[in-house]
Predict the 3D structure of the following.
Amino acid sequence: MFLKGTFIPIVVLTLFLFSIQPVFAQWNDVNYDENKIAHYRLPDPLITFNGRKIKNTKKWENKRRPELLQFFTENVYGKVPGNLKIASVDVVEKNDNAYNGKAIRKQVELTFKNNGKELSFTILLYLPKNNVKSPLFVGYNFYGNHTITTDVNVIISEAWTKNNTSFGIINHQLTEQSRGVRTNRWPVEKIIDAGFGLATIFYGEVDPDRNDFFDGIHPLLYHENQTHPASDEWGSISAWAWGLQRAMDYFETDKDIDATKVVVFGHSRLGKTSLWAGARDQRFAAVISNESGCGGAALSKRRIGETVWRINKNFPHWFCENFKMYNKNERSLPVDQHELIALIAPRPVYIASAEEDKWSDPRGEFLSAFYATPVYNLYNKKGIPSDKMPEVNCPIQNTVAYHIRTGKHDVTDFDWKQYLMWAKKELKIE
Ligand code: GCU
């Protein structure tokens, strides 16, 4: 009886689904063709949500900046639902003879406590040994502090890590085998020689990069019976940005650091993070986004390379739940990522792309820098003067800076050479 009644409709439905499958496949294909971008309109960073033109920095700071910041907070990255201060600072290791006597090494553990729960993360610091307060680059690393250097004294994190057999990471635990595997991305000696310190943190210690909210920092701020952030509360990017802000709290207390000259740096998902940290916290003197792509510097409305839908599908924990409203619906977003860049104004910001990194949409990253420029101009700061992209390997280094270099999604010596040169100029470091 049951079979008789349902067999035919099921067959018809199956055939129907098969027949429309190519339509969906096409819909979900990644577009890399500039000519196939549907017409879109970018919001003007200098026009408020209710249509008022912003003509000076005072109006920008009192009206437009706060409303944009609020929108990004509640609808893109998610708000931090409480005020969690450092419970204790522990200098677990210190040495004055790192890098052949050039640098001071410190490993500083920050601990947080709330709700009967506890979380600690460790900042690895290398500071030039020159008796002056050092300007500093701070940025997360992907696989543990010990991967950025061959220095045998760097402590190996015990936090959950994504497996990576080429780095010898199995069972989600870091080991001695991965020491130094990322030195190519972190030219520590060159940074020291340029007069900067470097601070880095393993991002997995603040929040492991997986789609659950039982670990990392989130549970410390849950209210009773809460197991998941609310729709407007922090995803992982916001949590990682929070970690950078707490590192900044520590820098302000370290007499060897010039906390007025801290440059926040990040690559890829951690470049999205550095932008959000820099937008949210004006204590960061400058911001660098290396190939941050979708949800970072790239304009969402272009829908080329990675899109809002795809990033939310593949990484459901990165943004807040509310951001999912814009899946395949970027048109209705009242903001775009150039306004995230504008939130950093008038502080220097550097956006970098790589020619082969189409997934991150280099042109969309460039245009964000260009369309954020009018806000910098309000402060008489120089941004990106034209919407014509520069040639590869020909950086534009104004207060808003941009380069596209040859090569793949990565952090290279070329990138660092530019960042050091530009940061010295913008932060007036001798
Ligand atoms: C993926 C993701 C990107 C991200 C990148 C990374 O490719 O789609 O959005 O930037 O990972 O962090 O390496």
Summary: The longest helix spans residues 2-28.
